[in-house]
Amino acid sequence: QVQPVESGGGLVQAGGSLRLSCAASVSMFSYHAMGWYRQAPGKQRELVAAITSGGSTNYADSVKGRFAISRDNAKNTVYLQMNSLKPEDTAVYYCNLGYSYWGKGTLVTVSS
After folding, report:
1. Quick check: 1 pLDDT over 90?
2. How far from the centroid of its chain's Cα atoms is residue 93's Cα?
3. d(CA 80, CA 83)
4. Alpha-carbon gap, residue 86 to 110, rounded angstroms
5. Each residue of 55-92: pLDDT tens digit?
């Protein structure tokens, strides 16, 4: 069983903050790259942020300066801190483990 489990989604006002968590019960967690993706209605799933086993990060242009991805290998957990949220951030956010395994997603709704 290696399915990631997301948590932390919810409803927030524009300009607010939210922190998503993703836990994965897998051996050698630190070896795997982790990523956050999102899918809004009528749009393709897109990469939001990723972090490699070495700690290198990558962000979509639309979230640079507002979102931050981090990982705690001792807890087999990756986080996505989302600040200055905008209505266009509304989407289902998915956690990805090692480019292969997907969580079920957690809904983030940002109201204007």
Report:
1. no
2. 6
3. 10
4. 6
5. 999 999 999 999 999 999 999 999 999 999 999 999 99
